[in-house]
Amino acid sequence: MNLKSKNLLLIGFLAAFFFIGFIAFKDAMPEDKNKRVYSVIKLYLPYTYERSLSGFNIVNKKTGEKEQPPASEALKYMDKLDKEWGKEFLKLDGNTLIILDDNKESLKQIEITPEEKAWVQSFFEIQ
Prior knowledge:
- Strands 1-2-3 form a three-stranded antiparallel beta sheet, with helices on one face. A three-stranded antiparallel beta sheet has the order 4-5-6.
- It has two domains: 1-30; 31-124, no CATH class.
- The protein is of the alpha+beta class.
- It has four helices and six strands.
């Protein structure tokens, strides 16, 4: 093998390594969120996360229980928990988003734009 072949082989390995790394990075990213609506909803979500040496812990605010999903899946797992909560505790009434409590009583109502409504329907899979 000559020097040119070795350099091409090295460049090929590096390109493959970066490509695989980029794909893994994209897969670990959480879904995009509407900043205004999510910042309001976030106050009522029963889960939060805290950083630890081994990654992230997901903490249930009500019980204090901690879950530790693999670090590469923590943010997507948090999205999954948010969606499950949203299906049960969020309700749309026209362009009004209603956040419900445990007794299905209204805690907060937010007027949202049609674009924000589309995001709520898509992200939380509610109508």
